[in-house]
Design brief:
Chain lengths: 131, 224
Amino acid sequence: MSQDHGHHIVPVKMLLAVIGILVFLTILTVALAQVELGIFEVPVALSIALTKAGFVVMIFMALKWDNKVNATILAVGVLCVLIFISFILIDTEFRGDLSNTTEATIMDEQRMEQTLDGREPDRSDISFNRQ
Amino acid sequence: MANPHTNQPAHVKHYFVSSEQQFDAAKMGMWLFLVTEILLFSGMFVAYTIYRSWHPETWMALSTALDWKLGGLNTLVLLASSFTVAMGINQIQRGNQKGLLLNLVLTFVFAGIFLVVKYFEYSAKIEHGLLPGASFDPHGVSHGFDYATYNVPYGPQFFSIYFVMTGIHGFHVLVGMGLFAWITWKAKNGAFSADYYTPVENCGLYWHLVDIIWIFLFPLLYLI
């Protein structure tokens, strides 16, 4: 019956080859972490991790031979993560590079708002512009 | 074994056309769930990315506070458990119930080893005050090393991220152990065959994802 189902049986030899590659890549990433790589440190570690994840997904999870709808679901998920990370970095990496629309910072404006809400007539409390 | 009305094997629910369709539907549901898991962890990876890019010196200094030997050992343990899951599925696809059972037991044992190693790691962190947020207070000397040198700016944030990421991952390992205990028990009672092994396939997919999360956590937290 299982043959008619067409479920792909991943051969034991291939599973052994993949676990060998994964162990090798683990040793490689540990070894490279002892070396001073400077700005390449993060890209190198991430590339090795992505390669390892690729082997697990394709061979161990058998996505390579699976119904393409499952690969599509995974691809959409990964795309969402990439959008998530890149759009947040557009904010956090460039904060303060452009000037604010007012002189005050957001926190100063919030403080001013609280002060105004307090209905204190003393205007010296409202001192957000600290030049 | 077969359902007399539909001429289908007994495990096929009446609302499915065939065993194959039932298997594919269950598996697609699992992949959808795995995507929600990826999105859950992605929030934590984003937090990691932002804080690392803001305070790279803290991240480089405190990655040395994590023992890469224990982290590396746990990486190998999880990789081995992923291998045994894949082997178990290979065995049951060939109709070998004993082979499946052996591999499921091994997977459960590897998951247990992972959590034991994690326990020793957490104990050392708690003992020396390498804790999240306001509890961060590195102190004490161990193996001639003074933990107070870990008292760097933004250390509390590093350990908040470390404990949340490894903690939620560890919880997934614990859930995985529960799942594998369940399917091991079912496998022992001969519930699975080459025609029906859907729970094994789906628990296997879940377990591989837990392994993949650790594949990223290990270098990001322990190495760089």
